[in-house]
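hiii, so i know i said id send this last week but things got crazy w the move. better late than never?? heres the sequnce for the chain we talked about at the cafe, plus the structure i predicted for it. fair warning i was half asleep when i ran it
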Amino acid sequence: MVLFPDFNKSARLLEGEEAAIEFTPERAGEYGFQCGMGMLRGKLRQLSRQPTAPQGTADPLEIARRRLAAGEITIAEFDEIRTRLQSGLK
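okay and structure toks below
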């Protein structure tokens, strides 16, 4: 058994098998883990928290280009966005 008390998570460890535990640290820092008996201990280090979206003002046309490349919008939708941005409309 491995325990991650900071995240209220645990997993049963079986010899020769993998175990997955999902959690998301909310801040940079050190987080402890230990075996079920508390005899083996360790630390996970979260060095920085990466933002999920770019901070600050982003170029709307660049955002549209990325969405087009990702297949989130069609070429027609991209062209409409570009036309509106060039004419000053939003």
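btw The chain has two domains: 2-46, 57-90. thought thatd interest u
miss u guys!!
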